[in-house]
Design brief:
Blueprint lengths: L1 H16 L4 H12 L15 H17 L3 H26 L5 H34 L4 H21 L1 H22 L3
Length: 184
Amino acid sequence: MELLLGILVGVSLAAATGLRVFLPLLVAGIAARSGHLELAAGFDWMASTPALVAFGLASVLEVGAYHVPWLDHLLDTVSVPSAAVAGTLLTAAFVADVSPFLQATAAIVAGGGTAGSVALGTAGVRAVSTATTGGLANPIVAFGEAVASLVLSVVAVLAPVLALLVVLAGVAFGVRRLALRAPA
């Protein structure tokens, strides 16, 4: 059961990194530091003071930078691979007491894949926002993404099953929208 719970927490946090890379790392680090989450062996550094300061500073800079229309597109070029790496890291941090091969496989496939997919989707949303509003709506989109990342991260810590349901609902919504847009 602990393995499944660890995967749920990790994948839910990974999905949140697809929206903002550093907020879920900060939330996970704070949760581990306060005793709400247990990190896998070798990941204790995520709850250290230097890591929390770095995650906090990076979160503030990232959230602020996404509110600048031309800078958000520049960040999109690095956000997909960065989110995949952060999602892989977060998933590995919560998949404990298994072989290193299983831990790495779950982290790369489930965590990195989820984070990368969400990041691609959010980059697409911002591209559509730019095309339809000339970038005027991008700060609103950026604010919504930051709030969603923070809320999903907190829910992943407090109620991982609910967080997974939210992620699955978001994926279903995205797939449905793509299917409705596709030519017949």
